Predict the 3D structure of the following.
Amino acid sequence: MFDAAQIEAIIAPSLAAMGYAVVRIAFSGGRRPTLQIMAERDDGSMSVEDCEAVSHTVSALLDVADPIAEAYMLEVSSPGIDRPLVRPKDYTRYAGFEAKIELQRTVEGRKRFRGKLLGLDGDNAKLLMGDETVSLPLSQIANAKLVLTDELIAATEPQNRS
């Protein structure tokens, strides 16, 4: 059985010591089961060399701990520009940018929202949709990600050049 929290507990301290933060851990089954580790540096950057360093470290740690019984492929990646919003601090850090949020259950008669991210209000993500501000409970968010816009690209260009 896959346990993302267990895997994060195994790898996060070593990655933090190397200057990386775990963004998301996912496992997909099928013919070639894949463990996906999404990580980034504190400044949000992540180069190919960074992915390689994280991959070597994670591989060694998981070989020793062996938390997944079946054979799997390890995939390490950056969150990318149109990154997923996973941690509460992501909603604050990327306030001002457009985001898509999908909930586990309906709120205000709908499950899918798209608008300008306004940050957090307690345990709720705030989103400006036209003239309306909606509060979406973090506990009910199934998927959330930034939308690739010219503003987002312009804001991340210095990171992309490194």
The chain is about 30% helix and 40% strand. Strands lie at 20-28, 34-41, 73-77, 98-107, 110-121, 124-129, 132-137, 141-146. The mean pLDDT is 92.
